[in-house]
Fold this protein.
Amino acid sequence: MAEYSDRKDRTITTRWQISGDLAKFILNQDLTHLDDWGGKEAVREILPEHFQKNFDMIQTDLINCILEEKNKQTAIAFAENISKWGEWLHEQLDEGKKVVYHYFIHTIEPLLALDFAPICFEVLSGLTSALYTDGCEEGIDAIEAEGYPDHLCSSNKGAAGYLLKGYIPQPACFLKGSAPCDTSNRVYEWAAHKYKVPLIVVEAPYYMNERAHKFLTEEIKRMIVKLEKIAGKKLDEDKLRHYIQLSNEAVDYLAKIQDLRKHVPCPDTGWHRPADTIFTAQLGTPFARDYFKALYENVKERVDKGQGVIPEGKKEIRLAWGYTWEAFDLPFFNWLENKHGAIYTEDTLTYFPMDTEMIDTTNMETMLAGLGRRMMQMPMARQVMSFSDVWINDFVDISRAYKVDALAIGGHMACKHFWALNKLLSDKVKEKTGVPTLRFEMDMMDKRFTSPSELKRIMDDFFATF
Amino acid sequence: MTAIEELKKLPSREKNSYIKEWKGDGRNIVGFTCHYAPKEIFAAAGIFPYRLEARGTKETGLADVYYHRFNCTYSRCILQEGLSGGYAFLDGLCFLNGCEQIRRMYEVWKEHVPTTDYQYMITVPHSIYDEGFEWYKEEIFRFKEDLTNNFATRLTKGDLLASIDVYNESKRLLKELYELRKADNPPISGAEAMKLIFAADIMPREKYNALLKEALKEIRSREGIKDYKARIMVGGSPLDDTQLIEIIESLGGIVVTDTLCGGSRNFQEFIEVEKDGDPLEAIARCYYYSNPCPRMMNQFDSRCEYTEKMAREANVDGTILTKIVFCDNHAVECTMIADELEPKGIPVLSLEREHMLTDVGRVRTRIEAFIERISRR
Amino acid sequence: MFYLGCDVGSMTTKTVILGNKDVVAYDIAANNGNLTKVVETSVNKVVSKAGVSLADIDVKGGTGMGEQYIPFDHSKEGIIKCLAVAVYWIHPHTRTVVDIGGLSTSVISINGHGKVLEYRTSDKCASGSGFFLKLAAQALELKVEDLGNIIIPCGERAHMGTQCAVFGESEIVSHINDGEEPEKIAAGINYSLGSSVATMINRLGGIQDIVATGGVAKNKGVLRAIEEILGMEVITLSSIDEQLVGALGAALCAQQRMQQG
């Protein structure tokens, strides 16, 4: 069981681990709603003391959301694996393993095989934003106070601010693909410069063809050479194979889940979907594999029983989500199901294309080529590193395959390239599938931009027109 | 009309006689969006390379239908010009993935600006290293093939060498202009100098060189400007008109150098072709390695050095770095540069603006206060 | 039978009582102070004008961004649907509804049965809204109501280039200091706002038979600017105050809900 650490630089990660333990504890109680216990105040009193402080930080709506029967199984999977991941991460840090902050288009098998402690920079912002009432605004405000603009991406700003505040460990290096965007590139460059550590850049070439794949594979090789210098060891083929096998298993489950979501009624709940990105950033770890396995079992069970996730008597409205959503309000997707019967089919942020390959683990060459291919498909790489037709076609494919009724795009204010395409995207989807788009402005991780209540009002207005 | 007057005219595209004459002769003009476009190749293929600008764009109603307020006004103004027919004279357009806002214009332009038949995208890696250079070099080679096939032109090694000579000559002349501006009493104002620099991309290069050579003779003979309070360097987001410089100079500053994409970055290195060397490779090498652009990662230290060098060589009293609202690259760069230069005794004003500079009062107030701070008298 | 509709917007609260065919009473109140009290006072005024009591009204609909402050039981209606339903009820030829409010603008495409096909709402920015007009009027020392009557041809009005309400205020001050006449600046502001709205309409596409609603629809300068840019007529509803359309829609939607059981 995690305890609060004296170490300031473990503030964020310890908090998560405790939240994972706390959620497991609550989920093992035989109750469905905080009010059944007497409300949040009453609940705190019966919690072990070291959970109480953490409990106060967590969004009340989130606790109620995970206590709903339909969400419990996925919530247990989430809680268990966050907790295990936190425990594992602290063990790595205790052993003195070097921290590599990486962007989430990177699959981390090589980092794990080189015995680094990899932490996805954006998950630092995302998970805090998703779990806690205060979100990651403290981090955002800290970096903005240094004079950096508000139009940078909150997923980068939150973590950058935590570095400034000393809430997260000092890195040995940063690892950044050149996709998806200038804002993330600039924040990583700032961070590497500020903390005087190397920034390893992996160029995500502009195309989605063999030439690009070949170049990216070579880039990954060059990345490994640089990482080896920092790690002080050579990459072991067997170790790499071990982590790739784990990531293959996870991706296999993910592909199966994606396929099952096409069913009517949709068998997958929405609350955890933004949080899935936390585990796509962990592909290669047993936690990611176990998480997606549990998700798959949950979804499969519903498919076998012909069950959906919306209340009896409501008509299912099948939504697909565009680029980004409000990571700060996971219960929002649960609210959509319960109030409007609106389910979450797919989104273009966690989407792997239908023909996702497993990585061939025969030898180092096949593995590196496979990592290159996978990186081209990772969220934010696939959508962004090439011409827009890749992305538009994904929207069209999703709309058709998942029998989508409407596309909802929570347009993240920092996403300049998305906004440059916003009308092109919605026009093409409308033209090819007839599916309308609801598009609204928000900030993915800063709830002050468009508040949770305003988001609900936007959705209420939208569903009133259905 | 003197050479300087001709260069300073900066006619609008509709009134640009060079465009009319070129098109009238049945020749082609291809636009480009960013400094990484290899102008020498266009010119060697007999094509006039025109850098997209949005001088004088007053509103972005058409562009705003496709783009959004989170896209910078520079990109929206350029798109506006395209959508309103301002670039109907182009026979083609070469995009580059210089920044997010401009590179995504490729698809919107292709779909909605009907007048541009030929569009190409050259992609540039985001950091400087040997293998990145190989990628860029191949991109240049492919572009050259595509361009010449599309426009059915021949392009020999001799054409390339000749074109390189012409553009190197421009660089030599521009370097000379900037040297003259370093004088204690510069013979030319910043606004005037910027007009001479902007003129490079709106007329055939040979013509420009001839005019600039003449203009330099006149400039050398002038008495220098003594009446100024502070020597200023300008940098940051792209500028394609002189309104900001004019404001600075109306308040007692004199702009003596810059680190602008459309300014000094144009002539940092000459293209040198080794004996029996490949001119295409030499072109690629120069463009890739010598552009201190903030979109490049792991290059901040060298950009900082370059910025400091430019400031010290021109003996500036302060630097004004402007960032267009929503310009990620320059917004971060301005702050990082300021943090480096201020402790070294080079004051920096970091100024937010739009591409269309209409809130003049706010801008004037800030510049005025900065000049007061750094004033020599 | 009477139906009550209440639209609690960003700057004003509008309440109507609808009889069998017509609006029988209405009120428009500025949202000063406690919003619940504002709504209560407005509703009380309206029921009094109609000669009834609130308890007599079985069907009540509420809408707008402050709908949660309505202190009595009511059905909650989405504002987009309310606007579409109300405009169609009055003017069935409408196919595009443009609502220009205090803090936001919505453009709605409806079909021949009054059903919403698609819509867009404005960005989180004051520059395309009534709030910007309020700022502008203060800077020019004019009344907001008088701004709307200032229509000056292109070429004579002051150019407003900025797209930010904060920079916009600075731009207005620059124009004043440059000696520009207030009327020309006002005309420029109207055009700038109209241009923002026209852009939104163009983004929606499929434009025809445009009806404008909302407080800013009273500003003829803005409407003429939209017409100039789109090359199409923009009409307002003569039978009802432009600001009341949302509230009317709430009453109509509540009525529909009751009829559908």
Observations:
- Chain B touches chain C through 19 residues (CB under 8 Å).
- Residues 157-181 of chain B form the longest helix (25 residues).
